[in-house]
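In these records, each integer encodes one residue's backbone shape. Here is one protein:

___
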Amino acid sequence: MITADLSELHHSDTNEKEQKLLIRVLQLQPILYTRSTAAAVLAISPSSFDRHVAPHVPRHYVGGSLVRYSCADLIKFAEGRRTELPPL
């Protein structure tokens, strides 16, 4: 979650509606990740992401050549790779 110093929102030039909107925007979670952020979310290196994940999840092209990966697709990938450990 994005954290920010919200004290600057209390200036007289911003009304209450604008303050609420700014707070909501600051609390948004990204739904598309860069390669390095997607790797960090999965707790792997970017090179491991390239080898083991990227070939199996859809790419989202933003602005032509900018590639992003969706949070939902990364969750599906991780859930699909889950294995149960045998009992001890």
In short: The helical segments are 16-26, 35-41, 46-53, 71-80. Confidence is low (pLDDT under 50) at residues 1-6. DSSP finds four helices and three strands in the chain. Strands lie at 32-33, 60-62, 66-70.
